Amino acid sequence: MHIVELDHVKKSFDGTEVLKDISLYVDKGEVVSIIGPSGSGKSTLLRCATLLETMDDGSLSYAGERIADSKNGRSVYASKEILKKARSCFGLVFQNFELFPHFTVLRNITDPPVRNQGRDRGEAEREAMALLEKVGLSDKRDAYPCELSGGQKQRVAIARALAMKPDILYFDEPTSALDPELTQEILKVIRALAEEKMTMVIVTHEMKFAREVSDRIIFMEKGTIVENDSPDKVFSSTNERTRQFIGKF
User: Fold this and answer.
1) What stretch(es) of the chain map to CATH 3.40.50.300?
2) What is the tens place of the pLDDT at every residue in 37-51?
3) Scanning 113, 154, 196, 202, which has the fewest C-beta atoms within 10 Å of its C-beta?
């Protein structure tokens, strides 16, 4: 069963079609990277998959449960209860961290599972400490976001997403706000998650990383999927536009 499935998704902003009939799925344990030029619809696709944007048309399912259906040329969403359940299936790591500035690192990680999933605070704190160790930040539990580097903030954001025990983790250009040295910190954490078979969808400009870590690479342009294949096949594609884009890197 696919963890997430999008069928014939369309999305426009102010009359401009940003997603044009997009269909894709991700299976358990897969790492899928989405690449493409700015404005190709990558982030909008992620925002539709994570319910931050509503689709104009198309359907969305998580673990076989229909979250939105296409009816009479538009997307009709399921009940609030089903949407809430769907939100617990995924975690999302943004490019600008989105940490609460007035919470400590530990509270940033423990608050979502306690508030949104009703988990015991003591248990959530134990799990948060294990996650901080995993991302190499166990000494920062009492620090505030303003005391952290960009790379450290992003590692906390990853730990926070993992604390919700999601089935799938989405990354929206997780290194775009970081310098090259800090970028390597984050890629190392994502690589380790890939080795543990964490299901992930990564929107990225890091071509070498995408090639090394992905099971599949999706190349998008102008709101369409041009390629959806193994890294080797995408990187040796005969499609002129794909070659042109990858050649720049």
Assistant:
1) 1-89+172-249
2) 998 999 999 999 999
3) 196
